[in-house]
Amino acid sequence: MTDHELSFSHFVSPRNSQIKRRYIAVGFLWNLLLLSAIALIGCTKEGPMGPQGPPGATGPQGPVGTANVQYSSWFSPSAWIADPNGSDFYFDTMASGITQSIIDSGVVLAYVKIAGDSVLVRPLPAIPTAQGIEAWDYVIPAVGKIRFTYVNNATMIPSTSNKFRYVIIPGGVKLGKRAVIDYRDYGALKHYYRIPD
């Protein structure tokens, strides 16, 4: 047998058989790597934008959120009305957002800016002075109306320069989500509900 002649037993020997399998495995891996590279290069994200698709169906009504919160501008009373004993005063204002649904399941909050007070905004009810009795509050006497009240132990008529604001929060949202807000903190309320000054 010459150097160039190979016998069948040469190819089937255990040593050559292992080498042959290695070459086949390495060749397979190189081919797989080459095909993967071609696939990645051939698939680019560049290209013209397709035509606009048709509009989708209208979805269901979402939960009540901050977009449904209503608030008034700051306003002052034109006059206070005195009750017969002279130490209690009130004024009414119309508030169309105060519906029966709000009375039954919503929240109405009110705030005051008292003329000459060192505190910028007070949540109602408020008792701002330590000298004597002075109390500010509000009630909902009827649908569409809010009444602001003032009581003092001297027959002092409150100023018409005081400013008031109310905020209406509809029901339908679990309190767990809202419980993080201290409604007596006007700044936090204003920030959470995006209420402008």
Verbal overview:
The protein is an alpha+beta fold. The protein has two domains: 8-40; 68-192, no CATH class. The protein contains five helices and eight strands. It has helices spanning 8-11, 14-42, 100-105, 175-178, 186-192; strands at 70-71, 81-82, 88-94, 107-113, 122-123, 134-142, 145-152, 163-169. The strands form two sheets. Strands 1-8-4-5 form a four-stranded antiparallel β-sheet. A four-stranded antiparallel β-sheet has the order 2-3-7-6, with no helix packed on it. It is rod-shaped and about 115 Å long. It starts with 7 loop residues before the first helix and ends in a 5-residue tail after the last helix.
Largest sheet: 4 strands, antiparallel
Radius of gyration over alpha carbons?
Answer: 39 Å
| Helix percentage | 25-40%
- Structural class by helix and strand composition: alpha+beta
Q: What proportion strand?
A: 15-25%
**Mean pLDDT, rounded to whole units?**
78
Q: Helical region count?
A: 5
- Shape, per Cα inertia axes: rod-shaped
Oligomer: single chain
Count the E strands: 8
SSE order, as H and E? HHEEEHEEEEEHH
Low-pLDDT ranges: none
Distance between the termini: 105 Å
Largest sheet, spatial ordering of strands: 1-8-4-5
Give the number of domains: 2
